[in-house]
Amino acid sequence: MRASVEIDAVHSTPVTRRPEQVIDGHSDAGVVGADPLGQSMSLMGATMVYPRNTEIFGENEPADYLYKVVSGSVRTYKILSDGRRQVGGFYLPGDVFGLEYSDEHTLSAEAISDTKVLVVKRSILTALAGRDASIAQQLFTLTGRELCRVQDRILLLVKSAQERVASFLLEMAERVSGNSIELPMSRQDIADYLGLTIETVSRTLTSLECAAAIEVPTSRRIVLRNRSALSRMNG
Questions:
Q1: CA 37, CA 45: separation in Å to the nearest integer?
Q2: Domains in the chain and their CATH numbers?
Q3: Do strands 65-71 and 96-97 pair parallel, antiparallel, or not at all (unpaired)?
Q4: What DSSP character marks residue 165?
Q5: What is the maximum alpha-carbon separation in the chain?
Q6: C-beta separation of 164 from 152 below 8 A
Q7: What strands lie across the sheet with 46-50, from one edge to the other?
Q8: In this predicted model, what pLDDT tens digit does every residue of 158-214 receive, in sequence order?
Q9: Is the pTM of this model over 0.85?
């Protein structure tokens, strides 16, 4: 069940189309960041809440909005013709998603857990970027970062299972800036992201723990004990 909004360019007033949609005031404390793009999204956007496993937008739908994760986490994915799911990426607090090279979304997006998202019209930011070079630069940087992630995934899918899992753990550690990672996503999410089975992911994590490269205190918490070893495994 997906929630959708229309946002007025002047008043940033969200109009609900589904009674189940939950909307907070767009002046939510803590949303405004030091960056110009973050400030602009906070001022011109609307804060919306998506319950766990709720679709935020669907594949091939108009890419009219840009999104920023305030709390919680989001996955993008595509259902393949044979019914398998390929996860495209994970977005954590502070991440912007929904950037597209065309007018339609190439993937669907879904809340992994109860998630708060800042939503702003793409046309508003595009117009603002035309007047503000700093915002234009940030949007360009974000687009470039998404392209790098796509390129990294192409290389990832030719690696061994151990290399893929090691690469994923290093990526997550870099994004949270630490060796202790609280994973919001399930083992199935990780498997669908890495192009592996859930059994292979679990087996590989156990193998890495036995090799003292990581520690797995809980199913969602992983501690990197030997980043150098993981880097070597990553090739």
A1: 11
A2: 5-155 (2.60.120.10), 159-233 (1.10.10.10)
A3: antiparallel
A4: H
A5: 57
A6: no
A7: 22-23, 46-50, 115-121, 65-71, 96-97
A8: 899 999 999 999 999 999 888 999 999 999 999 999 999 999 999 999 999 999 999
A9: no
